UniProtKB/TrEMBL annotation:
Pfam annotation, one family: HAD
Name of the molecule in the record: phosphoserine phosphatase
Organism annotation: Streptococcus zhangguiae
Reaction(s) catalysed (UniProt annotation): O-phospho-L-serine + H2O = L-serine + phosphate; O-phospho-D-serine + H2O = D-serine + phosphate
Keywords of this entry: Amino-acid biosynthesis, Hydrolase, Magnesium, Metal-binding, Serine biosynthesis
An MF annotation (GO) of this entry: hydrolase activity
Cofactor(s) needed by this chain: Mg(2+)
Classification via Gene3D superfamilies: HAD superfamily/HAD-like (3.40.50.1000)
């Protein structure tokens, strides 16, 4: 089947209701401290790379079994399953790109049948988190670069893409996509995104897409 388009979504507070790193922080007994840093980073008040390193350092000493526990506390945003299934029916590829971690994001993506996944990976030694990230950190530049890479791989144009996210680190990909959507987003994202959804229901992404298509047909 010819690929008709590409939809790229953030994960934390977009595809899922929770912030995965905040759940990890709670498990480490530093939930409030981690959540405060997360909120400031998503508002664009902190450099994301530095904020992530600071939060991950607080997770040092957690056993890798913690991922099984937090997966039980994660919930897909209403409409997530229906959105992915409908997009696939329409010939779209679906991707997630996250400042969160492969250890949980891969499981969630597999459950929904998502086509592409990019996230961070936590370093562990002897089954214990070291407080460091393995490899390059996924930044706002990474998110945009992934969008552009997957566009090329599928012979698409940026005009054929949709990007959905809630935090400041999602803005470059939201602004680069054909349809950029701020989803229940922080103020800085709502102000700068072309479109916004302020209801926790991902099926509304289809409403935006279909509304724009209908407008094109009537122009």
């Amino acid at each position: 089947m010819t690929v008709k388009g590409l939809v790229v979504m953030d994960v934390d507070s977009t595809l899922i209701l929770e912030e995965g790193i905040d759940l990890l922080g709670e498990e480490a007994g530093v939930g409030e401290e981690v959540a405060t840093i997360t909120e400031r980073a998503m508002r664009g008040e902190l450099d994301f790379r530095e904020a992530l390193a600071e939060r991950v350092a607080l997770l040092k000493g957690l056993p890798v079994s913690v991922f099984e526990r937090i997966l039980k506390r994660i919930h897909f945003t209403p409409g997530a399953r229906e959105l992915v299934a409908t997009l696939h029916q329409r010939g779209y590829k679906v991707a997630v790109v996250s400042g969160g971690f492969h250890e949980t994001v891969d499981v969630l993506a597999k459950e929904l049948g998502i086509d592409y996944v990019k996230a961070n990976r936590l370093e562990a030694e002897n089954g214990i988190l070291t407080g460091r990230v393995l490899g390059e950190i996924v930044t706002k530049e990474t998110k945009k670069a992934c969008l552009e890479k997957w566009v090329l791989e599928n012979g698409l144009r940026l005009a054929d893409t949709v990007a959905v996210g809630d935090g400041a680190n999602d803005l470059p990909m939201i602004q680069a996509a054909g349809i950029g959507i701020a989803f229940c987003a922080k103020p800085i994202v709502r102000e700068q995104a072309p479109y916004q959804i302020n209801e926790k229901n991902l099926i509304k992404v289809l409403d935006v897409m279909d509304g724009l298509m209908n407008n094109k047909k009537t122009d």
